[in-house]
Amino acid sequence: MARATISEDQKALTLDDATLPVIDLSGLFTGTAEDKAKVAAELGEAARTSGFFYITGHKVPETLIEAMFAASREFHMKPRSFKMKYWSGFSTHHRGYVPFEENGSDFPKSINFNEAWDMSYEAPEDHPDYLAKWRMTGPNIWPDIPGWKGTVGAYYDAIFDLGLRLLDALALELGVEPEELTRHITYPTSQLRMLRYIPNDLPATKELVGIAAHSDFECFTILLQGGPGLQVMNAEDVWIEAPPIPGCFIVNIGDIFETWSGGQFKSTQHRVVNSGNERYSFPLFFGLDYHAVVEPLEKFRTPETLEKYPPMKAGEHLMRMSINAFRYMAEAKAAGELVPDYEVPEENPFKREAKAP
Predict the structure, then answer these.
(1) pTM of the entire structure?
(2) What residues have CB less than 8 Å from 216, skipping those under 6 apart?
(3) CATH 2.60.120.330 holds for 3-334
(4) Domain-by-domain residue ranges, the chain?
(5) Which residue among 37, 53, 216, 328 has the highest number of C-beta atoms inside a 10 angstrom radius?
Protein backbone atom coordinates (compact mmCIF):
# COMPACT_ATOMS: atom_id res chain seq x y z
CA MET A 1 0.00 0.00 0.00
CA ALA A 2 1.01 3.61 -0.35
CA ARG A 3 3.75 4.39 2.10
CA ALA A 4 2.66 8.02 2.22
CA THR A 5 -0.72 7.13 3.71
CA ILE A 6 0.06 4.42 6.28
CA SER A 7 1.78 4.88 9.63
CA GLU A 8 4.83 2.93 10.74
CA ASP A 9 2.66 0.96 13.17
CA GLN A 10 0.32 -0.07 10.37
CA LYS A 11 3.20 -1.09 8.11
CA ALA A 12 4.38 -3.41 10.87
CA LEU A 13 1.14 -5.42 10.79
CA THR A 14 1.21 -8.90 9.26
CA LEU A 15 -1.36 -11.56 8.38
CA ASP A 16 -0.97 -12.89 11.91
CA ASP A 17 -2.60 -9.67 13.15
CA ALA A 18 -5.78 -10.26 11.14
CA THR A 19 -8.97 -10.37 13.21
CA LEU A 20 -10.91 -11.92 10.31
CA PRO A 21 -10.32 -14.91 8.01
CA VAL A 22 -7.52 -14.51 5.45
CA ILE A 23 -8.03 -16.18 2.06
CA ASP A 24 -5.38 -16.57 -0.63
CA LEU A 25 -7.05 -16.17 -4.03
CA SER A 26 -4.07 -17.48 -6.01
CA GLY A 27 -5.93 -20.70 -6.79
CA LEU A 28 -8.53 -18.78 -8.77
CA PHE A 29 -5.84 -17.81 -11.27
CA THR A 30 -4.17 -21.22 -11.74
CA GLY A 31 -6.87 -22.73 -13.93
CA THR A 32 -7.13 -26.05 -12.05
CA ALA A 33 -10.56 -27.15 -10.85
CA GLU A 34 -9.15 -28.42 -7.56
CA ASP A 35 -7.49 -25.10 -6.70
CA LYS A 36 -10.60 -23.12 -7.57
CA ALA A 37 -12.80 -25.42 -5.50
CA LYS A 38 -10.48 -25.02 -2.49
CA VAL A 39 -10.62 -21.23 -2.65
CA ALA A 40 -14.37 -21.30 -3.22
CA ALA A 41 -14.85 -23.45 -0.12
CA GLU A 42 -12.80 -21.01 1.98
CA LEU A 43 -14.81 -18.08 0.64
CA GLY A 44 -18.05 -19.87 1.43
CA GLU A 45 -16.99 -20.63 4.99
CA ALA A 46 -16.11 -16.98 5.58
CA ALA A 47 -19.32 -15.77 3.92
CA ARG A 48 -21.40 -18.01 6.21
CA THR A 49 -19.66 -17.02 9.43
CA SER A 50 -18.03 -13.59 9.62
CA GLY A 51 -19.34 -12.22 6.31
CA PHE A 52 -16.03 -10.30 6.28
CA PHE A 53 -12.58 -11.55 5.25
CA TYR A 54 -9.17 -10.45 3.98
CA ILE A 55 -7.94 -11.56 0.55
CA THR A 56 -4.38 -11.98 -0.68
CA GLY A 57 -3.09 -13.28 -4.02
CA HIS A 58 -5.49 -10.95 -5.84
CA LYS A 59 -3.06 -9.96 -8.64
CA VAL A 60 -3.78 -6.22 -8.37
CA PRO A 61 -0.38 -4.52 -8.89
CA GLU A 62 1.12 -2.66 -5.95
CA THR A 63 2.06 0.16 -8.33
CA LEU A 64 -1.60 0.66 -9.23
CA ILE A 65 -2.59 0.67 -5.55
CA GLU A 66 0.02 3.32 -4.76
CA ALA A 67 -1.06 5.38 -7.79
CA MET A 68 -4.66 5.26 -6.56
CA PHE A 69 -3.73 6.62 -3.14
CA ALA A 70 -1.79 9.41 -4.85
CA ALA A 71 -4.69 10.24 -7.18
CA SER A 72 -7.16 10.43 -4.30
CA ARG A 73 -4.87 12.66 -2.27
CA GLU A 74 -4.30 14.89 -5.31
CA PHE A 75 -8.02 15.45 -5.76
CA HIS A 76 -8.96 15.83 -2.11
CA MET A 77 -6.17 18.35 -1.48
CA LYS A 78 -7.61 20.66 -4.15
CA PRO A 79 -9.43 23.79 -2.94
CA ARG A 80 -13.08 23.27 -2.10
CA SER A 81 -14.03 25.66 -4.91
CA PHE A 82 -12.40 23.24 -7.38
CA LYS A 83 -14.04 20.14 -5.90
CA MET A 84 -17.50 21.70 -5.76
CA LYS A 85 -17.45 22.20 -9.53
CA TYR A 86 -18.01 18.43 -9.65
CA TRP A 87 -20.65 18.20 -6.89
CA SER A 88 -22.65 15.00 -7.27
CA GLY A 89 -25.88 16.96 -6.91
CA PHE A 90 -25.25 18.50 -10.32
CA SER A 91 -25.73 15.05 -11.89
CA THR A 92 -28.90 12.99 -12.16
CA HIS A 93 -27.06 9.71 -11.51
CA HIS A 94 -24.80 10.36 -8.51
CA ARG A 95 -21.39 10.98 -10.02
CA GLY A 96 -18.68 13.28 -8.71
CA TYR A 97 -17.78 14.96 -5.43
CA VAL A 98 -19.66 14.35 -2.18
CA PRO A 99 -18.75 16.93 0.51
CA PHE A 100 -18.95 15.79 4.11
CA GLU A 101 -22.12 17.77 4.84
CA GLU A 102 -23.98 15.67 2.22
CA ASN A 103 -23.29 12.41 4.08
CA GLY A 104 -26.47 11.58 5.94
CA SER A 105 -29.95 13.02 5.60
CA ASP A 106 -30.00 14.40 9.16
CA PHE A 107 -26.84 16.55 8.98
CA PRO A 108 -25.77 18.36 11.18
CA LYS A 109 -27.52 16.43 13.96
CA SER A 110 -25.35 13.49 12.93
CA ILE A 111 -22.05 13.94 11.10
CA ASN A 112 -20.10 11.45 8.99
CA PHE A 113 -16.60 12.89 8.83
CA ASN A 114 -15.76 11.94 5.28
CA GLU A 115 -15.80 13.37 1.80
CA ALA A 116 -15.71 11.32 -1.39
CA TRP A 117 -15.42 11.10 -5.12
CA ASP A 118 -18.08 8.69 -6.42
CA MET A 119 -18.05 6.92 -9.77
CA SER A 120 -19.52 3.73 -11.16
CA TYR A 121 -19.65 1.39 -14.13
CA GLU A 122 -19.54 3.43 -17.33
CA ALA A 123 -22.86 3.51 -19.18
CA PRO A 124 -23.32 5.44 -22.44
CA GLU A 125 -25.19 8.71 -22.70
CA ASP A 126 -27.92 7.02 -24.75
CA HIS A 127 -28.61 4.37 -22.11
CA PRO A 128 -32.40 4.45 -21.54
CA ASP A 129 -32.09 4.61 -17.75
CA TYR A 130 -29.83 7.64 -17.99
CA LEU A 131 -32.14 9.36 -20.47
CA ALA A 132 -35.07 8.70 -18.13
CA LYS A 133 -33.05 10.18 -15.21
CA TRP A 134 -33.10 6.96 -13.21
CA ARG A 135 -30.39 7.29 -10.59
CA MET A 136 -27.10 5.34 -10.51
CA THR A 137 -26.77 4.53 -14.25
CA GLY A 138 -24.95 6.69 -16.79
CA PRO A 139 -21.56 8.06 -17.87
CA ASN A 140 -18.87 9.03 -15.38
CA ILE A 141 -17.55 12.54 -15.01
CA TRP A 142 -13.90 13.37 -14.43
CA PRO A 143 -12.05 16.23 -12.73
CA ASP A 144 -9.68 18.34 -14.78
CA ILE A 145 -6.50 16.74 -13.41
CA PRO A 146 -3.93 15.43 -15.93
CA GLY A 147 -3.62 11.62 -15.88
CA TRP A 148 -6.29 11.22 -13.19
CA LYS A 149 -8.88 9.50 -15.36
CA GLY A 150 -6.34 6.95 -16.58
CA THR A 151 -5.22 5.99 -13.07
CA VAL A 152 -8.67 5.81 -11.50
CA GLY A 153 -10.19 4.08 -14.53
CA ALA A 154 -7.45 1.43 -14.50
CA TYR A 155 -7.99 0.79 -10.79
CA TYR A 156 -11.75 0.49 -11.26
CA ASP A 157 -11.29 -2.01 -14.11
CA ALA A 158 -8.83 -4.10 -12.07
CA ILE A 159 -11.10 -4.30 -9.01
CA PHE A 160 -14.22 -4.93 -11.09
CA ASP A 161 -12.46 -7.83 -12.84
CA LEU A 162 -11.45 -9.16 -9.42
CA GLY A 163 -15.10 -8.94 -8.42
CA LEU A 164 -16.11 -11.08 -11.40
CA ARG A 165 -13.68 -13.78 -10.24
CA LEU A 166 -15.10 -13.64 -6.72
CA LEU A 167 -18.61 -13.86 -8.13
CA ASP A 168 -17.71 -17.01 -10.10
CA ALA A 169 -16.08 -18.59 -7.06
CA LEU A 170 -19.06 -17.88 -4.81
CA ALA A 171 -21.39 -19.32 -7.47
CA LEU A 172 -19.25 -22.47 -7.49
CA GLU A 173 -19.44 -22.68 -3.70
CA LEU A 174 -23.23 -22.32 -3.76
CA GLY A 175 -23.53 -24.96 -6.48
CA VAL A 176 -25.15 -22.72 -9.09
CA GLU A 177 -24.08 -21.87 -12.63
CA PRO A 178 -22.17 -18.56 -12.80
CA GLU A 179 -24.52 -17.40 -15.57
CA GLU A 180 -27.38 -17.49 -13.07
CA LEU A 181 -25.63 -14.55 -11.38
CA THR A 182 -23.74 -12.83 -14.20
CA ARG A 183 -26.84 -12.51 -16.39
CA HIS A 184 -27.76 -9.59 -14.14
CA ILE A 185 -24.54 -7.71 -14.98
CA THR A 186 -24.48 -5.60 -18.15
CA TYR A 187 -24.40 -2.00 -16.85
CA PRO A 188 -24.32 -2.63 -13.10
CA THR A 189 -24.60 -0.11 -10.28
CA SER A 190 -21.08 -1.04 -9.11
CA GLN A 191 -19.95 2.11 -7.37
CA LEU A 192 -16.39 3.04 -6.42
CA ARG A 193 -16.00 5.59 -3.63
CA MET A 194 -12.70 7.42 -3.12
CA LEU A 195 -13.13 8.35 0.52
CA ARG A 196 -11.15 10.77 2.62
CA TYR A 197 -11.90 10.82 6.35
CA ILE A 198 -11.49 14.38 7.55
CA PRO A 199 -9.19 15.27 10.47
CA ASN A 200 -11.07 16.72 13.42
CA ASP A 201 -10.78 17.10 17.20
CA LEU A 202 -14.30 15.96 18.07
CA PRO A 203 -15.04 12.82 20.12
CA ALA A 204 -16.14 9.49 18.71
CA THR A 205 -19.84 9.21 19.54
CA LYS A 206 -22.95 7.68 18.00
CA GLU A 207 -23.63 11.04 16.29
CA LEU A 208 -20.01 11.83 15.31
CA VAL A 209 -18.66 9.02 13.16
CA GLY A 210 -16.50 8.26 10.16
CA ILE A 211 -19.36 6.28 8.63
CA ALA A 212 -22.37 5.12 10.63
CA ALA A 213 -23.15 1.43 11.13
CA HIS A 214 -24.68 -0.23 8.07
CA SER A 215 -24.65 -3.27 5.85
CA ASP A 216 -23.77 -2.90 2.18
CA PHE A 217 -26.56 -3.08 -0.33
CA GLU A 218 -24.87 -4.88 -3.23
CA CYS A 219 -23.39 -8.38 -3.82
CA PHE A 220 -20.16 -7.70 -1.93
CA THR A 221 -17.63 -4.94 -1.33
CA ILE A 222 -13.91 -5.00 -2.10
CA LEU A 223 -12.19 -2.48 0.19
CA LEU A 224 -8.71 -1.00 0.14
CA GLN A 225 -8.03 1.05 3.27
CA GLY A 226 -5.08 3.20 4.26
CA GLY A 227 -5.50 3.39 8.02
CA PRO A 228 -7.37 2.00 11.03
CA GLY A 229 -10.96 2.82 11.93
CA LEU A 230 -13.05 0.06 10.37
CA GLN A 231 -15.02 -2.03 12.85
CA VAL A 232 -17.01 -5.17 12.03
CA MET A 233 -19.81 -6.80 13.98
CA ASN A 234 -18.69 -10.39 14.65
CA ALA A 235 -20.81 -13.53 15.02
CA GLU A 236 -21.43 -12.67 18.69
CA ASP A 237 -22.76 -9.22 17.64
CA VAL A 238 -19.76 -7.45 19.16
CA TRP A 239 -17.69 -4.79 17.35
CA ILE A 240 -14.12 -5.85 16.48
CA GLU A 241 -11.31 -3.96 14.75
CA ALA A 242 -10.48 -4.73 11.11
CA PRO A 243 -7.17 -2.92 10.51
CA PRO A 244 -5.52 -2.68 7.09
CA ILE A 245 -2.99 -5.43 6.38
CA PRO A 246 -0.35 -4.64 3.73
CA GLY A 247 -1.00 -6.52 0.49
CA CYS A 248 -4.62 -7.32 1.41
CA PHE A 249 -8.07 -6.15 0.51
CA ILE A 250 -11.05 -6.67 2.79
CA VAL A 251 -14.20 -8.20 1.30
CA ASN A 252 -17.63 -8.20 2.88
CA ILE A 253 -20.85 -9.85 1.79
CA GLY A 254 -23.76 -7.54 0.93
CA ASP A 255 -27.53 -7.72 1.03
CA ILE A 256 -27.87 -9.21 -2.47
CA PHE A 257 -25.79 -12.30 -1.71
CA GLU A 258 -27.55 -12.78 1.61
CA THR A 259 -30.83 -12.75 -0.32
CA TRP A 260 -29.56 -15.00 -3.13
CA SER A 261 -28.32 -17.58 -0.63
CA GLY A 262 -31.53 -17.58 1.38
CA GLY A 263 -29.65 -16.22 4.37
CA GLN A 264 -26.71 -18.65 4.29
CA PHE A 265 -24.27 -15.84 3.48
CA LYS A 266 -24.20 -12.97 5.99
CA SER A 267 -24.47 -9.29 5.12
CA THR A 268 -22.53 -7.98 8.09
CA GLN A 269 -22.92 -4.66 9.88
CA HIS A 270 -19.81 -2.47 9.93
CA ARG A 271 -18.84 1.12 10.65
CA VAL A 272 -15.89 3.52 10.68
CA VAL A 273 -15.29 5.25 14.00
CA ASN A 274 -14.27 8.87 14.18
CA SER A 275 -10.58 8.62 15.08
CA GLY A 276 -10.01 12.29 14.27
CA ASN A 277 -7.22 11.27 11.88
CA GLU A 278 -7.03 11.64 8.13
CA ARG A 279 -7.71 8.31 6.42
CA TYR A 280 -8.14 7.25 2.80
CA SER A 281 -10.10 4.22 1.64
CA PHE A 282 -11.60 2.82 -1.56
CA PRO A 283 -14.64 0.54 -1.43
CA LEU A 284 -15.89 -0.99 -4.69
CA PHE A 285 -19.52 -2.01 -4.20
CA PHE A 286 -20.05 -4.83 -6.68
CA GLY A 287 -23.66 -4.51 -7.79
CA LEU A 288 -26.14 -5.64 -10.43
CA ASP A 289 -28.09 -3.95 -13.20
CA TYR A 290 -30.55 -1.44 -11.80
CA HIS A 291 -33.68 -3.40 -12.75
CA ALA A 292 -32.36 -6.86 -11.82
CA VAL A 293 -34.87 -8.64 -9.57
CA VAL A 294 -33.18 -10.11 -6.48
CA GLU A 295 -34.72 -13.02 -4.59
CA PRO A 296 -33.45 -16.34 -3.24
CA LEU A 297 -31.91 -18.46 -6.00
CA GLU A 298 -34.09 -21.34 -7.08
CA LYS A 299 -32.23 -23.97 -5.06
CA PHE A 300 -32.65 -21.88 -1.88
CA ARG A 301 -36.33 -21.05 -2.30
CA THR A 302 -38.52 -22.24 0.53
CA PRO A 303 -41.65 -20.70 2.05
CA GLU A 304 -39.43 -19.37 4.85
CA THR A 305 -36.76 -17.79 2.64
CA LEU A 306 -39.33 -16.28 0.28
CA GLU A 307 -41.11 -14.72 3.22
CA LYS A 308 -37.91 -13.36 4.73
CA TYR A 309 -36.47 -12.15 1.40
CA PRO A 310 -39.31 -10.92 -0.84
CA PRO A 311 -38.32 -9.87 -4.39
CA MET A 312 -36.63 -6.50 -4.71
CA LYS A 313 -35.04 -4.63 -7.59
CA ALA A 314 -31.33 -4.18 -7.01
CA GLY A 315 -31.30 -0.50 -7.98
CA GLU A 316 -34.41 0.35 -6.02
CA HIS A 317 -32.94 -1.19 -2.86
CA LEU A 318 -29.76 0.82 -3.41
CA MET A 319 -31.73 4.01 -4.00
CA ARG A 320 -33.98 3.61 -0.97
CA MET A 321 -30.91 3.33 1.22
CA SER A 322 -29.05 6.11 -0.62
CA ILE A 323 -31.83 8.59 0.12
CA ASN A 324 -30.97 8.20 3.80
CA ALA A 325 -27.23 8.26 3.05
CA PHE A 326 -27.01 11.49 1.01
CA ARG A 327 -28.65 14.72 2.06
CA TYR A 328 -29.07 16.09 -1.47
CA MET A 329 -31.02 12.95 -2.43
CA ALA A 330 -33.30 13.33 0.57
CA GLU A 331 -33.90 16.95 -0.44
CA ALA A 332 -34.58 15.89 -4.04
CA LYS A 333 -37.12 13.38 -2.81
CA ALA A 334 -38.80 15.99 -0.63
CA ALA A 335 -39.01 18.27 -3.67
CA GLY A 336 -40.52 15.48 -5.82
CA GLU A 337 -37.50 15.38 -8.12
CA LEU A 338 -36.59 11.69 -7.88
CA VAL A 339 -37.56 9.26 -10.64
CA PRO A 340 -39.54 7.41 -9.38
CA ASP A 341 -40.71 8.64 -5.97
CA TYR A 342 -39.06 5.99 -3.81
CA GLU A 343 -40.37 4.99 -0.44
CA VAL A 344 -37.74 5.38 2.28
CA PRO A 345 -37.55 2.53 4.84
CA GLU A 346 -37.36 3.46 8.48
CA GLU A 347 -34.27 1.27 8.81
CA ASN A 348 -32.20 -1.26 6.92
CA PRO A 349 -34.05 -4.61 7.14
CA PHE A 350 -30.67 -6.39 7.21
CA LYS A 351 -29.48 -4.49 10.30
CA ARG A 352 -28.49 -6.18 13.58
CA GLU A 353 -27.74 -4.38 16.82
CA ALA A 354 -24.35 -4.76 18.49
CA LYS A 355 -24.10 -6.08 22.03
CA ALA A 356 -21.20 -3.80 22.90
CA PRO A 357 -20.01 -0.37 21.69
Answers:
(1) 0.92
(2) 252, 254, 255, 267, 283, 285
(3) yes
(4) 3-334
(5) 216
